Amino acid sequence: MSPRESQKKATVCEVGPRDGLQMAKGIMPTEVKSRWIAAIAAAGVPEIEVGSFVPAKLVPQMADTDAIVRHAVTIPGLTVVALAPNLRGAQNAHAAGTHRVSIPVSVSEGHSRANLNRSPSEQVAEVARIVAWVRSQPRKMEVEAACSTAFGCSIDGVVPVRNVVTIAAGLAEAGVDEIALADTVGYAHPSQIHEVVRAVRAAVGEKLQGLHLHDTMGLGLANALAGLEEGIRNFDAALAGLGGCPFAPGASGNIVTEDLVFMLESMGFATGIDLPALIAARDLLREGLPDEPLHGQVPKAGIPKTFRAAA
Amino acid sequence: MSPRESQKKATVCEVGPRDGLQMAKGIMPTEVKSRWIAAIAAAGVPEIEVGSFVPAKLVPQMADTDAIVRHAVTIPGLTVVALAPNLRGAQNAHAAGTHRVSIPVSVSEGHSRANLNRSPSEQVAEVARIVAWVRSQPRKMEVEAACSTAFGCSIDGVVPVRNVVTIAAGLAEAGVDEIALADTVGYAHPSQIHEVVRAVRAAVGEKLQGLHLHDTMGLGLANALAGLEEGIRNFDAALAGLGGCPFAPGASGNIVTEDLVFMLESMGFATGIDLPALIAARDLLREGLPDEPLHGQVPKAGIPKTFRAAA
């Protein structure tokens, strides 16, 4: 392997404790969740989205997010991410010690109204308020905005690329540190990933950092590959593809962390993650949510004898 | 869409009736199998690998291949493919009216010995005998050779690219019409697809036509995407990802035809296949093999409202 090859790196952010658990039928006990997060971090996962600062009445699975964040920030080296849909949530995230807050901004009107009860442009304005407030605080916290439904919407259907660009440009203007594109409902295909990533990067440059992909149609890793080819190096994924999809019974959720790490490492992208240890962390997921189906091909088939982790 | 875009095409060969059923626990009744093949053809699938000319004692699921081929060749417009491991099998395939015979040639010594009881070079010599015999017949039959274990072997482990090139070059020399590369055990990753396809094409040029991929590690469609990027336009796939993997319980089999077609059509590659009709053909698979697990994300999630078939 050439020296240049040996420097290829990719960053995986585990979102199972947030996006996965939020969709799960059961509620994982706080104590198991904390051990599960610790096991994922111990496997070398550098970033974990551990919860959402949303009303417990709306999302009971996230009711313990404050306690979970306060525990997670004690794990050495881990970047602790939490979702917050508004200023109030971001303030709570900051108070708990969150390192990076992720703000969802739906590109499609229908999803924005249904999920946030605001129009997309109203949510961009909320992000601007969040950035201003965070910058006024003595303790730093990164602000990431995730453009939801950037590749299609189960309510509005096709989402025009120009709308994604408009929202992303508004978020860059609002001063966020990073922008991610989310295939919230799993409608994306590889050509679309190329097209949308290029268009958004033309508008906001290197602020575009990450892709958040779902495997609803089975194209999750092909879409991740298209993102890699466009220079994207940050990917969200969920252990065991946890979560499913509320509008598509039987469909899987986020792309599977284990399979993504297998692909990245096989291709020479170092993730810092120990694949056997990551797979072992499924045991805690099984303990905390015994009725939840666990996805993932590499854990089922076993790591093949030809596998070599990236240097 | 530009005129050039509208001419993008890809060919899907359904291999479920051969590779899928061969791995299945149950035996599909001949009558259901014939109706199943007819339904797949009616959905627009242009090529179907309908069976194997192998001893019924070894592979009882394939005992009816002669009858199945004789029925399948009556379906207008369908290219009927059958596997044959040796000259005797190829002669039987020819007698039944098969349009294209596919000969497996393992690149790895261990797989070749276990599967064919011959070394790779002995099997290349057998292919030369098959080609000579076929060319001597009044009725034409295409001869395709599939390089098994081209991306790794569950017995021998890593398969050097130079070995794949050597076998492929020998097959071109033997005069086959087409060469395919098979990820028999599902160990391939996208960078490897790029590397091996380029190396083999440098040796045999446009004789390299197809990819036969398995989804053992969840990378099947990402590998197909890498193949597309290398100019590969022929892909094997199995309805419902039928088949599994004998060495990896719980792992899935061939890449899922439904999901592959969804990806290709979404990306603007016309396949000629009607996706809803293809998905409906799962009913006959369920009827013929009620205990077999059916894979595939698009059938579970439903075709999204943003989907448009390629022109």
Structure explained in plain terms:
The structure is a homodimer of 311-residue chains. Chain A has 311 residues and is α/β, with parallel strands linked by helices. Chain A has a single domain (3-301), classed as TIM Barrel. Helix content of chain A is 43%, strand content 14%. Chain A contains 14 helices and eight strands. Chain A has helices spanning 3-6, 16-23, 30-42, 65-72, 87-96, 109-116, 120-135, 161-174, 190-204, 220-229, 257-266, 275-280, 282-288, 297-301, and strands at residues 11-14, 47-52, 79-83, 100-106, 142-148, 178-182, 208-212, 234-237. Chain A has an eight-stranded parallel barrel with strand order 1-2-3-4-5-6-7-8, surrounded by nine helices. In chain A, strand 5 (142-148), helix 8 (161-174) and strand 6 (178-182) form a beta-alpha-beta unit. The first copy, chain A, is globular and about 50 Å long. The model of chain A has no long low-confidence stretch (mean pLDDT 94). Chains A and B meet through helix 9, helix 10, helix 11 and helix 14 of A and helix 9, helix 10, helix 11 and helix 14 of B.
Average pLDDT, all residues of chain A = 94
Strand order, largest beta sheet of chain A: 1-2-3-4-5-6-7-8
Q: Give the overall shape of chain A, derived from the CA principal axes.
A: globular
- CATH superfamily of chain A, called what? Aldolase class I
Indicate the radius of gyration of chain A in whole angstroms: 18 Å
Quaternary state of this entry equals homodimer
Number of strands of chain A: 8
Give me the strand/helix succession of chain A.
HEHHEHEHEHHEHEHEHEHHHH
